Every structure is written in C-alpha cells, then in structure tokens.
Amino acid sequence: MALEDYKGVFTYAQQVDGELSSISLELIGKGKELADALGEQVTAVLIGSKVEGLADRLGEYGADRVI
Questions:
Q1: Is there a contact between 19 and 33 (Cβ–Cβ < 8 Å)?
Q2: How do strand 9-13 and strand 42-46 relate by DSSP bridges?
Q3: Distance CA 41, CA 63 (A)
Q4: Cα–Cα distance between 23 and 26 in angstroms, integer?
Q5: CA nearest 45: which of 16, 18, 15, 4?
Q6: Which helix (H) or strand (E) holds 66?
Q7: Per-residue pLDDT for the chain (67 aa), expressed as one digit of tens each?
Q8: Which residues, 6 or more positions from 45, have their beta carbon under 8 angstroms from its beta carbon?
Q9: Looking at the chain, which terminus has fewer C-beta neighbours within 10 angstroms, N or C?
C-alpha cells in the first residue's frame, strides 16, 4: 500500500466466533461522524478467517472500506 492509502479514519472491528462486538459497530458510527467532518473515509480493520459476511455488515454500519 502507498502512503496515501493510509489517510482517513481507521477503526478496529473485533469479532469473536464470527460475531462482531457491539462496540465495534458503535465505533464505526462515531468514526463515520469524524470522517464526514474531515472529508475522509472510514476504514474498518477486521482480522480473522471466514469473515467476508462480517465485512458486508460493517459496510451497512457506515464503513467505506474493510481491510
């Protein structure tokens, strides 16, 4: 990734046994508010295997990108 790929607001999305924690979803919402004020995007960082469906859910809560 190039340096310009690292701008914006990043949040960590915690998942346990394939379920996102509620605080992760709250952080996406607050991150979205901050990103909108800055004119940036929200990126959620999601770690785990077989989490593709969770990435879609993070998008529904306001994440512009999920990595």
A1: no
A2: parallel
A3: 8
A4: 5
A5: 15
A6: strand 65-66
A7: 687 777 899 999 999 999 999 999 999 999 999 999 999 999 999 998 888 889 999 999 999 999 9
A8: 10, 11, 12, 13, 66, 67
A9: N
What is the span of the domain harbouring residue 34?
Answer: 3-66
**Cα dihedral 29/31/32/36 (nearest 10):** 150
pTM of the model: 0.83
- Note whether 34 and 66 are within 8 A (CB): no
Please tell me the distance from the alpha carbon of residue 67 to that of residue 45, in angstroms, as a whole number.
5
Angle between helices 22-38 and 52-60 (to 10 degrees): 50
